[in-house]
Amino acid sequence: MAAQHSQGIQTLLEAEKEAAKLVQQARQYRAQRVKDARTEASKEIEEYKRAKDEEFKAFEASHAGVTQQAKEAVDKETEEKLKAIDEEYASHKEAVVKKLLDRVVLVKPELHRNLRKAGLE
Protein backbone atom coordinates (compact mmCIF):
# COMPACT_ATOMS: atom_id res chain seq x y z
CA MET A 1 0.00 0.00 0.00
CA ALA A 2 2.84 2.33 0.75
CA ALA A 3 4.19 1.74 -2.73
CA GLN A 4 0.85 2.60 -4.28
CA HIS A 5 0.58 5.66 -2.08
CA SER A 6 4.11 6.68 -3.04
CA GLN A 7 3.32 6.10 -6.71
CA GLY A 8 0.13 8.22 -6.41
CA ILE A 9 2.10 11.07 -4.85
CA GLN A 10 4.71 10.74 -7.59
CA THR A 11 1.97 10.94 -10.24
CA LEU A 12 0.50 14.03 -8.58
CA LEU A 13 3.94 15.70 -8.48
CA GLU A 14 4.49 14.96 -12.16
CA ALA A 15 1.02 16.33 -12.97
CA GLU A 16 1.82 19.45 -10.94
CA LYS A 17 5.09 19.92 -12.84
CA GLU A 18 3.27 19.47 -16.15
CA ALA A 19 0.63 22.03 -15.09
CA ALA A 20 3.36 24.48 -14.07
CA LYS A 21 4.97 24.05 -17.51
CA LEU A 22 1.61 24.71 -19.22
CA VAL A 23 1.00 27.81 -17.10
CA GLN A 24 4.51 29.08 -17.89
CA GLN A 25 3.97 28.49 -21.62
CA ALA A 26 0.61 30.29 -21.46
CA ARG A 27 2.26 33.26 -19.73
CA GLN A 28 5.03 33.39 -22.34
CA TYR A 29 2.46 33.13 -25.14
CA ARG A 30 0.40 35.95 -23.57
CA ALA A 31 3.48 38.15 -23.12
CA GLN A 32 4.47 37.55 -26.75
CA ARG A 33 0.95 38.38 -27.97
CA VAL A 34 0.95 41.64 -25.96
CA LYS A 35 4.36 42.52 -27.39
CA ASP A 36 3.16 41.76 -30.94
CA ALA A 37 0.00 43.81 -30.41
CA ARG A 38 2.05 46.79 -29.20
CA THR A 39 4.35 46.53 -32.20
CA GLU A 40 1.41 46.34 -34.58
CA ALA A 41 -0.33 49.28 -32.89
CA SER A 42 2.87 51.32 -33.10
CA LYS A 43 3.12 50.59 -36.83
CA GLU A 44 -0.51 51.62 -37.36
CA ILE A 45 0.04 54.83 -35.40
CA GLU A 46 3.10 55.71 -37.48
CA GLU A 47 1.20 54.97 -40.69
CA TYR A 48 -1.74 57.12 -39.59
CA LYS A 49 0.59 59.91 -38.53
CA ARG A 50 2.40 59.82 -41.88
CA ALA A 51 -0.93 59.95 -43.76
CA LYS A 52 -2.14 62.93 -41.71
CA ASP A 53 1.18 64.74 -42.21
CA GLU A 54 0.88 64.29 -45.97
CA GLU A 55 -2.73 65.47 -45.86
CA PHE A 56 -1.72 68.56 -43.88
CA LYS A 57 1.13 69.35 -46.27
CA ALA A 58 -1.24 69.07 -49.22
CA PHE A 59 -3.74 71.38 -47.50
CA GLU A 60 -0.97 73.82 -46.61
CA ALA A 61 0.32 73.82 -50.19
CA SER A 62 -3.14 74.42 -51.63
CA HIS A 63 -3.79 77.36 -49.30
CA ALA A 64 -0.30 78.88 -49.39
CA GLY A 65 -1.16 81.05 -52.40
CA VAL A 66 -4.27 82.43 -50.71
CA THR A 67 -2.27 83.34 -47.61
CA GLN A 68 0.41 85.04 -49.68
CA GLN A 69 -2.18 87.01 -51.65
CA ALA A 70 -3.90 88.14 -48.46
CA LYS A 71 -0.57 89.20 -46.98
CA GLU A 72 0.29 91.19 -50.10
CA ALA A 73 -3.14 92.88 -50.09
CA VAL A 74 -2.77 93.87 -46.43
CA ASP A 75 0.76 95.15 -47.04
CA LYS A 76 -0.42 97.22 -50.01
CA GLU A 77 -3.33 98.68 -48.03
CA THR A 78 -1.01 99.51 -45.12
CA GLU A 79 1.43 101.28 -47.43
CA GLU A 80 -1.39 103.33 -48.97
CA LYS A 81 -2.68 104.37 -45.53
CA LEU A 82 0.80 105.31 -44.35
CA LYS A 83 1.32 107.35 -47.50
CA ALA A 84 -1.99 109.18 -46.93
CA ILE A 85 -1.05 109.91 -43.31
CA ASP A 86 2.35 111.26 -44.39
CA GLU A 87 0.67 113.50 -47.00
CA GLU A 88 -1.81 114.82 -44.38
CA TYR A 89 1.06 115.49 -42.01
CA ALA A 90 3.07 117.32 -44.66
CA SER A 91 0.11 119.45 -45.78
CA HIS A 92 -0.95 120.52 -42.25
CA LYS A 93 2.42 120.72 -40.55
CA GLU A 94 3.01 124.42 -41.22
CA ALA A 95 -0.46 125.46 -40.07
CA VAL A 96 -0.23 123.48 -36.84
CA VAL A 97 3.21 124.87 -36.00
CA LYS A 98 1.97 128.42 -36.69
CA LYS A 99 -1.07 127.94 -34.42
CA LEU A 100 1.09 126.55 -31.64
CA LEU A 101 3.58 129.40 -31.89
CA ASP A 102 0.77 131.99 -31.99
CA ARG A 103 -0.72 130.56 -28.78
CA VAL A 104 2.63 130.46 -27.01
CA VAL A 105 4.09 133.77 -28.19
CA LEU A 106 1.05 136.03 -28.53
CA VAL A 107 -0.35 136.16 -25.01
CA LYS A 108 -3.05 138.67 -24.14
CA PRO A 109 -3.03 139.25 -20.41
CA GLU A 110 -6.59 139.27 -19.09
CA LEU A 111 -8.37 138.16 -15.95
CA HIS A 112 -9.87 134.74 -15.70
CA ARG A 113 -13.63 134.70 -16.20
CA ASN A 114 -14.25 133.64 -12.59
CA LEU A 115 -12.34 136.65 -11.34
CA ARG A 116 -14.34 138.94 -13.62
CA LYS A 117 -17.60 137.65 -12.18
CA ALA A 118 -16.37 138.35 -8.67
CA GLY A 119 -15.99 141.99 -9.61
CA LEU A 120 -12.25 142.28 -9.38
CA GLU A 121 -11.92 143.99 -12.74
Give structural notes.
This protein is mainly α and 121 residues long. It has one domain. It is built from two helices and no strands. The protein is elongated, with a radius of gyration of 47 Å. The termini are far apart.
Low-confidence stretches: none
How do the SSEs run, as a string of H and E?
HH
Radius of gyration: 47 Å
Biggest sheet details: none
Number of helices: 2
Strand content: under 5%
- Mean pLDDT across the residues is 89
Helix content: over 70%
State the domain count.
Answer: 1
Question: What's the β-strand tally?
Answer: 0
Protein structure class: mainly alpha
N- and C-termini, Cα separation: 145 Å
Shape estimate: elongated
Protein name: V-type proton ATPase subunit G
Family: Belongs to the V-ATPase G subunit family.
Keywords: Coiled coil, Hydrogen ion transport, Ion transport, Transport
GO cellular component, one term: vacuolar proton-transporting V-type ATPase, V1 domain
